[in-house]
Each structure stands twice: as C-alpha cells, then as structure tokens.
Amino acid sequence: MLNIRAHYGTGSPWTELSEKPNRLIMKNILLSVAIILLLLNACKKPNITHYTINADLKAAFNYQVGTYWIYRDSIGGGIDSFYVTKNQSGTSSVLDHNGDGYTNEGIAVYISEQNISPGLADTANEYWEYHYQSSMFNMNYFSLNKTLVQLFPLIDYPFQSTLSGSGAPGAPPYPQNGNVISISNSYTLNGNTFTNVAVVNHIANAPALQYNDVFYISQSAGIFKMRLNHPLDSVYRVWELQRWKIVK
Predict the structure, then answer these.
(1) Residues 31 and 61 in one domain
(2) 208-228, pLDDT tens digit by residue?
(3) Which of 107, 161, 186, 170 is nearest to 139 (CA)?
(4) Are both 15 and 80 inside the same structural domain?
(5) Residue 32 and residue 74 in one domain
(6) SS3 letters across 145-169
(7) Residue 167 pLDDT greater than 50, yes or no
(8) Is the pLDDT assigned to residue 19 strictly greater than 60?
(9) Cβ proximity of 92 and 101 under 8 Å
C-alpha cells in the first residue's frame, strides 16, 4: 500500500501555495506605501520665510549711483568727496536638507573717496560699504592702507537706543562695544538742519585694531558728520558735510 503522506510531503501543498501569493501581496502593498510616502515628501512645499528690507529703510538710505557727499575736515581743513560707485541688490538663503529655512533680501551700496583739495594727495584706497537687510543696516570702512576693516554693529531703522545683532533670525548680537549716544528729531550743523538723527559711537581697543569713532546719521542726508580716530593708521579727522546730492 502506498504511503500517500510520503508521496505529497509532510505539509499540505495547498497551504504552501496559498502563502506564496499572500507574501507577494504584502510586499507589493509595502512597496506601494513606501513609494507614496516618498512622493508625498517630494511634493511637500518647503517652509521658507522671506525677510525683505523694510520699506522705510529702503526709502531713506538706498543710495544710487549719482549720489555724493562733500565734507570738510575741521581739523586739517582738507575737503574730500565721497560718491556712490555701485548699488547692488540680491538675496541670500539659509536652507536645511528639506529645503526649509529663510531668505534675506540685501542691498550693498559702495562708496569711494576722492580728495579734491588743491595740493593734497588723493587717498583713493579709502572707501565705504553700506549693507541693508530687514530693518537694519551696517557700514564697513576700509582705511587708507586697506589693513583696517571695521564691521560696524547693525543699526536699526527707525533708529533705536540700542544697537542690534547680526541680522539673522534668532542670532545673538555682535560682540561689539558700540552704543547709540543719542537720537533726536533734528540737528543743525554749519547752517544746515538734518532730520531724524542718530549719533552712534563705535570703539575698539586691541593690539591690532584700535579706533574710537562717532557718526552722526540722518534720514535726510546719511552721515553728515563723522569723527575718525584711528591711531594705528594715523587717521584723525572730523568730517563735516558741506554739500551733497542724494539719488534714490
């Protein structure tokens, strides 16, 4: 008599046949779910915050080519002109691997200096940069031999009694020792009245970086007076604005 169990094996062939399709179905389902999740993640709109420049700040200080200021040094008597050579705008981004983050609108205004006093050498290596973002701006000053670069703390606009941080959302303040001396509605100098004025002091006292500067900044004309005291560069000046033209 034949042993039927031995002929068909120890298990049921119908059970084995029914388990194989089930495993294939589960694999297909899991694969489909994974593909759907990947597609949903790929279609997810990045969470990006866009920080634009304050409209009032841009209206007050966004100087264009054609803008110039002529100053007289009340210490040495020399006359210098400063003029805008370039106005450049752009956007910087800080994004994570998911594409989330923020963008900052920025404007850089480049200002060069030319000595127009008879008999005095030109100091063309001296120039300025204004940088604007959000509701703040800062100034970079490149001195005569280009070795002294000052990164000023950001100044809020409308003017406030304290200096601001780095400009990035949530970033700590710059480790600087500047301060806003005063804020006033107007200031009169050499017969000219300047409106909405902040007086800002910035100090450094390190072996390789020493200065004690004061800037008088107005909404109507920009910097109308600046006291530069740079012992390492032998720069001692008190520039007072004589004439100017603003192009925006």
Answers:
(1) no
(2) 777 788 999 999 999 999 898
(3) 107
(4) no
(5) no
(6) CCCCEEECCCEECCCCCCCCECCCC
(7) no
(8) no
(9) no
Domain span at residue 168 reads 48-242
**What span, in angstroms and rounded, lies between the C-alpha atoms of 208 and 142?**
15
What is the bridge-based pairing of β-strands 209-218 and 179-189? unpaired
Convert the pLDDT of each residue in 56-76 to its tens digit: 988 999 999 999 999 998 888
- Within-domain flag for 170: yes
Q: CA 211 → CA 75, 89, 91, 232, distances in Å?
A: 17, 30, 32, 8
Q: Do 38 and 116 lie in a common domain?
A: no
The pair of structure tokens assigned to 119 is 């008999």
Lowest-confidence region among 11-20, 88-97, 107-116, 121-130:
11-20
Do 108 and 213 sit in the same domain of this protein? yes
3-state helix vs strand vs coil in the chain, percent to 5: 20, 50, 35
| Among 198, 137, 140, 201, residue whose Cα is nearest residue 166 | 137
Q: How many domains does the chain divide into? A: 2
pLDDT tens per residue across span 71-107:
998 888 888 888 999 999 988 888 777 778 888 888 8
* pLDDT over 90, % of the chain: 24
Please report where in the chains the tokens 């008999």 appear, as a residue: 119
